[in-house]
Amino acid sequence: MSILDHIGFAVSDFPASRAFYEKALAPLGIKVLMDVTAEMTGGPAYCGFGKDKPDFWIGEGKAPGTPVHVAFAASNRALVDAFYEAAIAAGGKDNGAPGLRPQYHENYYGAFVLDPDGLNIEAVCHLPE
C-alpha cells in the first residue's frame, strides 16, 4: 500500500495544464477520472487524474513555487520513453531524457519534464526490464 492517498496542487493556467497532463500521462494509463467545478466548490475548479481513483489533482490558482517534484510509476522502460515523448509533444520542457540513473539504484530508469508551470514531473521504472 502506498503511503500517500492522493496529492494535488494549483496551476496557473488550469486549461493548459489539464491538456498537458492529459497528453503526458496517457501513455501511463492515467486519465481524468473526476471533475470538480467551481460551482461545486464555491471556489476554484479541480480535476483528478488516476487509473482506478483520482490520486493526482490539479486545480485553479497560483502555482506553487519550485521545487515541486512528482514521480509517476511506469511498469516498464518503454512507458517511461512514451511518457517523455508525449510530455514534450504536449509542450513540456526537457529536464532529463529517459535513461538509467544509477546514482539512485542500478535499475532506476526515469525521464524528467517540466510542466507548464516549471514543475518537475517524472515517470520512473524500477525494474531491470
CATH architecture: Roll
**What overall geometry do the principal axes of the alpha carbons give?**
globular
Oligomer: single chain
Arithmetic mean of pLDDT: 95
Number of strands: 9
Helical proportion, percent range: 10-25%
Count of helical segments? Answer: 3
Rg measurement, Å: 15 Å
Structural class: alpha+beta
Bin the strand percentage.
Answer: 25-35%
Could you describe the largest sheet, including whether it forms a barrel?
5 strands, mixed
Under CATH, the topology can be stated as 2,3-Dihydroxybiphenyl 1,2-Dioxygenase, domain 1
What is the C-level CATH assignment? Answer: Alpha Beta
Distance between the termini: 23 Å
Q: Report the CATH superfamily.
A: 2,3-Dihydroxybiphenyl 1,2-Dioxygenase, domain 1
The run of helices and strands is EHEHEEEHEEEE
Number of domains: 1
Ranges where pLDDT stays below 50 over 5 or more residues in a row are none
Domain VOC: 3-126
InterPro entries: Glyas_Bleomycin-R_OHBP_Dase (IPR029068), Glyas_Fos-R_dOase_dom (IPR004360), VOC_core (IPR037523)
Pfam families: Glyoxalase
GO molecular function: lyase activity
